[in-house]
Specification:
By secondary structure, the chain is of the alpha/beta class. It has 9 helices and 7 strands; from the N terminus they run ββαβαααβααβββααα. It has helices spanning 19-27, 43-49, 68-77, 83-88, 98-110, 119-125, 154-165, 191-200, 202-208; strands spanning 2-4, 9-11, 35-36, 90-95, 138-139, 142-143, 147-150. The strands form 2 sheets. It has a 5-stranded mixed β-sheet with strand order 3-1-2-4-7. It has a two-stranded antiparallel ribbon with strand order 5-6. 33% of the residues are buried.
Length: 212
Amino acid sequence: MIISHSNQFIWIKTRKAASSSIEVGLNWICNKKDYINWLKENKKAQEGLKLTKKSELRKYGISPHTDITTLKEKAINQKLITPEEWDSYFKFTIERNPWDKVISYYYYRFANKSFHVTFQKFMNDWNWDICYNWPLYTENDEIKVDYIMKFENLKEEMEFISEKIGKNIELLNENRFRPKEEKDYRQFYNQKNKKKIEKVFKKEIDYFNYKF
């Protein structure tokens, strides 16, 4: 989550769509005028650019994955941004094929753990629906950002965002959780689990025309 006055953009952070990697790159073009959420991957940027706790959004009750409606209300009420600035700033986020996104969350949850959980048990017992990002960038099912990057075209999307903002944004190219030789995500799913994703992520699937 970022409110950047120096670059006039608002970044809405989604889950399991390279959002932290993108956010680190965005933090590198921010300065003390801007509001960010601290990331452990971003310690070097915080120190180099003096992005201190004083500018951290958590201080204002705004978490890294606060939805856009709540962000707007809290940010304006606490005078982090004016209504005019909110309307004029470039607001963007990123989304990902939900079947792939849930696999990414599965790896994230169990990477470097001393115990193993099968994907079937994960789908039965764990809160994988936390990856449902639709409510983060919509209000009453209406898209409230100016642009939604697609994870599947990440290189081209980063080039577009860099051009749009007018600064080169480097992507933190680090996948710390997925194995080097990972299986195609479709190999994890049986028909029942495939249908579970279809049901929970229906709005994302319909809007972006995602296919299994």
